[in-house]
Amino acid sequence: MKTILETIYLFLDYPIISLGKQPISLNIILQIIISIFVTIILARLITSLCKNWLFKQLGTESGHREAFSTLIFYFIITFGIIISLQATGLHLQSLAVIIGGLGIGVGFGLQSIIKDFISGLILLLGRAIKVNDFIQFGNRQEFPDLKGTVQKISLLFTVIKTKDSAYLIIPNSYLVTYPIINWNYRKGAHRIKINLKVGKNTDFLLFTEIILDTVHQESSVQPSPAPKLIFKEINDYYCEFIVQVWIKDMKDEDFTINRLNYAFEYHLCKNNINLLFPTQNISFTQPNFNLQIPLNKSNKYATDSQTQAVDSGHISIRDILSKSRYFSHLTPLELRELIEIGYRQKLDKDTILFHEGDTGDSFYIILSGAVEVFVPKINKHLATLKEGNMFGELALILGIPRTASVKAVEKTRLIVFDKVGFQRILQEQPDIAEFIFEALSQHQEELAQRQKQLREMGLISEEEDDDNLVNWMKKRVYNLFSLGSINIL
Predict the structure, then answer these.
(1) Which CA distances in Å does 140 have to 66, 145, 200, 346?
(2) Which CATH number fits domain 13-109: 2.60.40, 1.10.287, 3.40.720, 3.30.460?
(3) Residue 214: CB atoms within 10 Å
(4) Which CATH architecture has domain 129-182?
(5) Is the pTM above the cut of 0.85?
(6) Residue 391 CB: number of other CB atoms within 10 A?
(7) Where are the domains of the chain?
(8) What is the mean pLDDT of each run of 10 residues along the chain (489 residues)?
């Protein structure tokens, strides 16, 4: 038995090849293989521990965790291989001949691999592209407008999962060399656009109301930046609009567009407004002429004149604003701008919208649901306001404290006109401020009460104070909304 073991040992220890002056036996090769295998296992365990526990405890982002873990893995592998070679008695000097030969090979045939390797280091260290980032390739011939999520970044290649759930394995040098859109490079909202075409006889103010209200009801749309409806073009057969909305994650682009398109179609048709298809040219050989026919939707919802809202449950914001004493003189264009600055707010039952004494920085229109107006100090109910009611406008215009508290008595949806948007409207349309002054000047008693209230609270500056109520009102509004110079009586 001893003779057999000695024979095996001599066989394993017999030199097969030599590197310089260093003999290489099967024993050394087996030790190197086992050492590398153990190193890989240890590298995977340590990397997994760092990625799934240590970096999470440190609050590192997922993309950074992947990058750091990859670098740690390759560092352990490299360090482990060097230790393994030294432990087996194989000195690195012995590999000088092989390394020299590889250098010649790199010069001829391994340039692309080295390029991908260096690009992988750039990606991992620079972190311009990270795991879980949603990227877009642009109009390269190989990947025309392709979008996908980064799944893995190694030293030579990157794995990307496309929107079709296919996996694209791409050399790292491509990501470094060519322009790439990274939708997750910085946190923030991303803009998407939807084109809509309607007939020239459409009631555009009603159309604006419906589109913006529909957009604000979609949960994936961000309230800020505010959605926009841009009038792009007037054609012979239609008018084209662009709906611009902002979403948190560009991965939801198709989902959001799909939901909005269905919602637009539904709400517009309920109000007798048709969305149009592009025109199609139909040619005839006899007689010889071309006829352009706009491909419309079914005439099921067609109208003969300017479309009007039907009994569809839609609250006409235009009609409500037009009935207000402050906005009744506004033109349709001015009303449209005012409607566009409004954003939607949802309240659960018993949610307090504002308290008595809060600064008046917004006014509201109830789109659905109901709110209670009450004075909590004396436990007195003042009113219950329902859909179609507007409130809080005087508090915004004069910047006065709220005289009562308001809470939702059921699930409620509001359109909110805040100070920032209202200030922009007044600065761009000075005539609106004059209409408001005219309306307020007809209610001298109410102005006097508000002035007295503000004086008692010490909220009127010496510069602004004036016994002439109209002058005082103008000064206050001009100061509140930074409207520039003022002409007083």
Answers:
(1) 27, 7, 39, 44
(2) 1.10.287
(3) 21
(4) Roll (2.30)
(5) no
(6) 18
(7) 13-109, 129-182, 190-301
(8) 64 63 71 82 85 77 70 80 72 57 56 79 81 81 78 88 88 86 85 92 91 89 90 89 92 89 89 74 44 41 37 74 87 84 92 92 94 92 94 90 93 93 86 85 82 78 75 85 69
